[in-house]
Amino acid sequence: MNSQNHHEVIVSGIHLELTPSLKEFVHEKTARLFRHDERIIRIRVELACDRSPATGVQFTAKGHIQIHGPDMNASVDSDECHKAVTLLVDKLDRMLQRRHQLLRVKRNHPHATDLGIELPKAHA
């Protein structure tokens, strides 16, 4: 797991105190995202807690992956903080798998190129 050392994972809390164990949990869960693409620059995870009387305690986990190419964003709501983090990482994992699959298909099936000129006809 030495490849994790040069990757950056930022964890922040909104209306929520981040304990060292929660930060470690987020780092452990997000470590598996780096196996998909070595070109991931940074992963930012925001954990928010909404304590409204109507809905009770609701946790929101937002993930932002900064990568070479278009950045990826996801958001998940849950009634437990650890569950929200797990669901968020699963969602980001699926997004990275889909992105990798689309890039592989594109690489193996190049599009036709329009040269803008008419090519001479071959004589049989």
What layout of secondary structure does this protein have?
Layout: E1 8-14, H1 20-30, E2 40-52, E3 56-67, E4 72-78, H2 81-108
Parallel strand pairs: 1-2
Antiparallel strand pairs: 2-3, 3-4
Helix pairs in contact: 1-2
Spell out the key features of this protein:
2 helices, 31% strand, Double Stranded RNA Binding Domain, 124 residues
Fold and architecture overview:
The chain has one domain (2-107): Ribosome hibernation promotion factor-like (Double Stranded RNA Binding Domain, 2-Layer Sandwich), CATH 3.30.160.100. It is built from two helices and four strands, in the order E-H-E-E-E-H. The model is unreliable at 1-5 (pLDDT under 50). The radius of gyration is 21 Å and the shape is elongated. Helix content is 31%, strand content 31%. The chain is of the alpha+beta class and 124 residues long.
Number of discrete domains? 1
The percent range for helix content is: 25-40%
Distance between the termini: 61 Å
CATH class: Alpha Beta
Class per helix and strand makeup: alpha+beta
The SSE string, one letter per element, is EHEEEH
How would you state the average pLDDT, rounded?
Answer: 84
CATH topology: Double Stranded RNA Binding Domain
In the CATH hierarchy, the architecture is 2-Layer Sandwich
Shape: elongated
Q: What's the total number of strands?
A: 4
How many strands, what sense, and barrel or not for the largest sheet? 4 strands, mixed
Helical segment count: 2
